[in-house]
Amino acid sequence: MRIIDRLEKKLGRYALKNVTLYLIAGQSLVYVLFQMGRLDPGQIFFSAGSLLQGEWWRLFTFPFDPPMQNLLFAFFAWYLFYLMGTALEEHWGSFRYNLFLLAGYLLTVAISFLAPAYPMSNAFIGGSVFLAFAFLFPDFQLLLFFVLPVRIKWLALLTWLGYGYMLLVGGWPSRLMVLASIGNFLLFFARDIWVNLKYGRRQVAKKVLSASRANEQPFHRCTVCGITDKTHPDMDFRYCPQCEGQCGYCRDHIFNHEHVRK
């Protein structure tokens, strides 16, 4: 996008490299502090209501909220986040990846003011990283829980279906979180999605046109007079075994023609 290109030219040198690693390191530290009882999980999440009450630090702490309390699942979530985040940074460059995460962060904070009492987590920001990775590398094969091989596009499809379900039947806070999570994805990929849809429609139209043209081609043609099963649908056509090649003839010429010799 032109706007991002201009921003990158002006601000690209300020991009933070390896930001995924910093986020994982911060979340790991917070996880250890949770387990040691040195930090209350309720002090980490973000809500606009808490911010308006003067708890400004939540603006900086909620990106470091660890994914879950179980260490095994937390480790797996960090592994996926590192794998996909570093791949996006390598593909886009540090500035665009920083901007992608920042857009998700700002959307989450902004959406929170529409439901100020609802706690917002960073889970949907990680979800947007997953969707971006799946869009760019759909055939990447992931060993789910290090055992089950599955292509990332199918997991992304399940994620989109889950988001759609939340939009349809979830409460307004959940709907707002989904909108915040896909907002930065659409900001970066809306144009590509539109181009793919247009290209897909063109391909379908070409296939339909080719099929229709193939259906218009006659199946039988008389070698002598040239009539076909399309022009004369009631005509019987036969093929002469003494002619070389597939030479068809109408009933008027099947016994009255010169045999074709190569």
Briefly characterize the structure:
It is built from nine helices and four strands. The protein is mainly α and 262 residues long. The protein folds into two domains: 2-201, Rhomboid-like fold (Up-down Bundle), CATH 1.20.1540.10; 218-262, no CATH class.
Please give a structural write-up.
By secondary structure, the chain is mainly α. It has 2 domains: 200 residues, Rhomboid-like fold (Up-down Bundle), CATH 1.20.1540; 45 residues, no CATH class. Helix content is 59%, strand content 5%. The protein is built from 9 helices and 4 strands. A two-stranded antiparallel sheet has the order 1-2. Helix 5 crosses helix 7 and helix 6 packs across helix 9. It is elongated and about 100 Å long. The N and C termini lie far apart (62 Å). 22% of the residues are buried.
- The total of beta strands comes to 4
β-strand percent reads 5-15%
CATH H-level superfamily of the largest domain: Rhomboid-like
Instruction: Give the strand line-up of the largest sheet.
Output: 1-2
Return the CATH architecture of the largest domain. Up-down Bundle
Ranges with pLDDT <50 over ≥5 residues? Answer: none
Binned, the helix content reads 55-70%
The CATH topology of the largest domain: Rhomboid-like fold
Number of domain modules: 2
Helix run count: 9
Euclidean distance between termini CA atoms: 62 Å
Report the structural category.
mainly alpha
CATH class of the largest domain: Mainly Alpha
